[in-house]
Write a structure and sequence with these properties.
By secondary structure, the protein is of the alpha/beta class. The protein has helices at about 20-25, 40-60, 65-75, 80-85, 100-110, 165-175, 195-210, 215-225, 225-235, 240, 245-250, 265-275, 295-314, and strands spanning about 10, 30-35, 75, 90, 115-120, 140-145, 155-160, 180-185. The protein has two domains: about 5-185, Rossmann fold (3-Layer(aba) Sandwich); about 195-314, Orthogonal Bundle (N-(1-d-carboxylethyl)-l-norvaline Dehydrogenase, domain 2). An eight-stranded mixed sheet has the order 3-2-1-4-5-6-7-8, with helices on both faces. Helix 1 (about 20-25) packs across helix 2 and helix 2 (about 40-60) crosses helix 13.
Amino acid sequence: METDLIKRILVVGAGTMGHSLAQTFAQGGYPVALVDVSRKTLDRAASLIASNLRTLEDLKLLDREKGKEIIERIHPLTSLEEGARNADLAIEAVFEDPGAKEKLFERLETLCPSKTILASNTSYLNIFEFKTLKRLEKIIITHWYAPPHIIPLVDVVKGPRTSRETVETMKNLLTKLGKKPVIMDKFIPGFIVNRLQRALAREIFHLLDNGYSTAEDIDTAVKASLGIRIPILGVVQRYDFAGIDLAYQFMKNPSIHLVSEDKPSETVKKLVDRGHLGVKSGRGFYDYSGKKMEEIMRDRDIKLIKLKNFLEAI
């Protein structure tokens, strides 16, 4: 399917990722059916999208009339049948439960036209192993990063029988939306960035669990070093500047024993047990009480947009 043949988008799941995905496609000029079983979640999504667009307006990146047009392109629905009827591309952004996702794909294959590309936003599930799938040449993973309407990266993961046409269509569509798709020719859980983050998380929670440092100081250390260097040198090219011979020597250093196993963090468990789940509950490692979610996300988004624009300029 050529990119210009994609006219209508279906996003299933209106939560943290889904509402932002719908906004991204609507900003790109596409009519979007945003489907969720919960009317409350859809109402929340509409509020967050409106807040996101006001942020863009305040930064002079969008005028108010364009914002209204974007909102008008998004059609919140509780009926999957209605949303799937004319979709050229369907993206699921529901919770990471393999049974739920497989049932959803089974329904999408039944409800969507035969031409429809079916994409998953999963970060680690191998959807290509679902036994009920039939149109395997049109199944693909497009894994976005939060918030999708700002962060450019999208992992495009090909299944064993995903057609090259499907891959190219998605790559071209995402590029048209201003995203930076990276193609993975075979599935591996977590793809690139999530695997790197998983390795980093082991060390973060090891430092916290054993009282080596505080959450605030760990963040300060990263922001004042890696946070400056990574946008320019990435995580591979920096070895060219450090010297690959020194990197090899460092790897042989026996004094740094990295955490080599995944196990639940006691620090994280205590936060979960207390109901401190992060921004959505008003408290996590940091205290967000007294602030609305829209306000917290607006502050984050303004900083991300300014940094993104600066990096693009240099």
